[in-house]
Amino acid sequence: MTVKEYNRSVEEYADSVYRFILADIRDEERANDIVQDTFEKLWRNVSELDFTVVKSWLFSTAYHGMIDIIRKEKRMTILEDNHTRELVYESQYNDLNEILHAALERLPEHQRSVILLRDYEGYSYQEISEITGMSEAQVKINIYRGRVALKNYIGKIETVI
Questions:
Q1: Do the beta carbons of residue 94 and residue 161 sit within 8 Å?
Q2: Which of 1, 78, 120, 142 could make an SS bond with 5 (beta carbons 3.0 to 4.6 A apart)?
């Protein structure tokens, strides 16, 4: 890959990678750090990569960097178990975006990541499998379970509107 292609990849993919990471961890500073580290790693490997695989490589590297940071923080901090909360939403809101983001925050990290990659970024199951290191079957299962949890949390659309 040339320097021109590297600069092109920054222009084309930096925002998408940032949005993907930010949607998952909800911290702008950490998301910026992860994206910066990802592009630094790309620069170090610029001679070894072809431009055709850069997008997938960036998302995969950013995802694994995010996972590493999350694991490190879990070892450093005792967190309460989020799985005990019921994923049911009973209040009425008119802001669908707010409801969706609240529902996404309640999902386990691996389900949230695959749903964001599939539904927000438009990746195929195979591409998500390559990015996350999960098998295609695991990706499909996590997407299904995440969507069911989102459906249970949001409830009927008539109640929201």
A1: yes
A2: 1
